[in-house]
Amino acid sequence: MSDPIEPACPLAPGAAGACPPQPLADVAVQRWHSGGGAPQFYASYVAAEVPVALVFNGISHAVMMATPQDLEAFAVGFALSEGIVEQPQECRDLEVTLHGLGTPDASCAVHMEISPRQFARLKDRRRTLAGRTGCGVCGIDSLQALDLHPAPLAAPAWREQLDAARILRPFGALAARQTLNVQVGSLHAAGWATPEGELTDVLEDVGRHNALDKLFGRLALAGRLGEPGFVIMTSRTSYELVRKCARLGVPAFATISAPTALALQLAQEAGMHLWAMCRPPTALRYA
């Protein structure tokens, strides 16, 4: 288990008293009916989506479109799951800065210092990510950079006890823990569950990859990386999610929707137990 990290103040110098971008935005909605009649007017919410720059040692490495919440966790999780650093302690001096507050161009940046060794390695394979909530390889400039051959994972004894009841238990508790999504219906969630199926953490974001990085960052900041447990997600099982889980040593991964063939290939190569279509009362485990 890793030691906790102490994040810095979440606002940039000079931004004291400013309101950071909120994860939800107020909107006016008209409800129309196919049977005719006048529309109903009411106030509602939609998910915010803002550019978030991830800055390592003063150099912007990636700009992702993300929900502006849990950004320190997002940056730490991204650094770990993308192999930029190997240990949480290598992420130092975390600071979130805010730009263009109160305007349509509002954005955030998360700054961190990483070790000279890791920064030199990052510069060797540096890539620019065109952040988006959909799919794509996001600016990777070579097939080798896809990293499609994860190292074999450890096989903990508790994993052999995972059955449908334990896998589905956290999914039953997930909706009530998605405090943002219950208001907007458009956010992904990544959750952490114990081997008994108890749901302990839930992180939300407009992007499924971002939600997973936030979850890993939350665990890293609390010094909990490496504790027994598995990841659940409200998304399809994409190869990128499997790759991130494999990098962080997660031995079991469960999602609501089906996997792709490439996701299965990566999970099999890593020795990861992959569950999908987890919708009570059934779940599929792919051999």
Automatic annotation (TrEMBL):
Keywords: Cytoplasm, Molybdenum cofactor biosynthesis. Required for formate dehydrogenase (FDH) activity. Acts as a sulfur carrier protein that transfers sulfur from IscS to the molybdenum cofactor prior to its insertion into FDH. The gene is fdhD. It is found in: Cytoplasm. It holds the Pfam family FdhD-NarQ. GO terms for biological process: Mo-molybdopterin cofactor biosynthetic process. One of its GO terms (molecular function) is sulfur carrier activity. This is Sulfur carrier protein FdhD. The active site is at 135 (cysteine persulfide intermediate). The lineage of its organism: Bacteria, Pseudomonadati, Pseudomonadota, Betaproteobacteria, Burkholderiales. It comes from the Bacteria. Belongs to the FdhD family. GO terms for cellular component: cytoplasm.
